[in-house]
Amino acid sequence: MKIPMLPLICIIGLMFFFGTIFLYNSEQSQGMVLGESDYNLDIVLDMETEELNQGQKPSEIIDFGYSGFLESVNKNIEMKFPVTPQKSDTYKKDFELGCSGAVIDIGSGAVLFKEKSEEQVPIASITKLANALVFLDQNPDWDSFYKVKPSDITEGGRIYLGAGDEVKLKDLFYLALVGSANSAARAMASASGFNEDEYVQRMNLKMKEQGLNNTNFVDPMGLSGFNVSTAIEVSKLAKSAFSKEEIKDALSKKYYRFQTKSGRSIGVYNTNILIGSSEDNIKILGGKTGYIYAAGYCFVGKFVNDQGIELISVVLGSHDMNSRFTENKKIAKWAYDNYIWK
Predict the structure, then answer these.
(1) How many helices (H) and strands (E) would you count in the chain?
(2) What residues form the membrane-spanning segments (predicted)?
(3) 244 part of the active site
């Protein structure tokens, strides 16, 4: 039987046409539009959902529309592009800080602002961040109780605890960071099972392991003028501290209340008066204050803007209580205004 050629050619042509459309749509559903496949190789998948739950926004959200891009994840895929800060076209530094200061970009580690940032100076109670890191290294049982010793009671600042008080390790930790309580900070060292000299050695070793060679401590509270660092190294210490959920949570609280084992209630306000404040689309997520006469007024804070860009800002040796906050906000805002992230 002779097959008519014209109808056969038409059928083959239609099959080829619809087949091409099908393949094109299939590629679209896989997120592989022509010219974008190499681009997608540079995408960094942000699978750290815990970071997102903690308020760290991805730099960019891409909806690929179909789960076929990765069968193991949902339709809306959180994607994070590596972004680096670059000086803006209007970059301008028209002020002097007058004390040690630094600002770093958390994502890239880039130093955005520095003034006397390599000068080794006392850092007062910012010391407690290193104490907290060492304390967490001991994997504390948060619900276990510690009986405060007479040797834990320390002058300097408000004294919340008395000898014989039994408090949970979690409450010691939060009391030291939220209220900057020196007795609680000293008790943390004792509760870890080390004498104070051994504990301070561990703090110093921790700093050396992180490459902070100009940072040194002689006590776990920050009362000595020989607890020293630089603005740059304090920013790196704070970045490390804020990466710990327990520290980040403590430093984000405006107020903390707990009870001793005997039922005595203790409440403490955060020494960081900026906590939770937002201005010019910039919010402070937490921070640590410090003051002794030798150090002046100190503050290190973590900021985020409405684009999700996070910075660490440090001021050491400011001249009064309020200026350490206003100067810190000033240099953080300057960094956001004078850099772009792309």
Answers:
(1) 10, 17
(2) 6-24
(3) no
Q: Which domains does the chain have, with CATH numbers?
A: 5-80 (no CATH), 86-341 (3.40.710.10)
DSSP one-letter code for 151: G
Q: Is 288 annotated as a binding residue?
A: yes
- Please state the pTM of the whole predicted model: 0.76
Distance (Å, whole) CA 301 – CA 178: 13
Q: At what angle do helices 196-209 and 127-137 cross, to 10 degrees?
A: 100
180 a catalytic residue: yes
Which of 114, 128, 236, 239 is an active site residue? 128
- Annotated catalytic residue, options 180, 235, 252, 313: 180
What tens digit of pLDDT does each residue of 82-132 get? 588 999 999 988 888 989 999 999 999 999 999 999 999 999 999 999 999
Is 125 part of the annotated catalytic residue set?
A: yes
Percent with pLDDT over 70 in the chain = 76
Q: Output the 3-class SS for 49-117.
A: HHHHHCCCCCCEEEECCCHHHCCCCCCEEEEECCCCEEECCCCCCCCCCCCEEEEEECCCCCEEEEECC
Pick the catalytic residue from 125, 183, 192, 252: 125
Tracing tokens 């800060």 back to the chain, one arrives at 85
User: Count of CB atoms within 10 A of residue 196's CB?
Assistant: 16
Rounded Cα–Cα distance for residues 104 and 234 (Å): 10
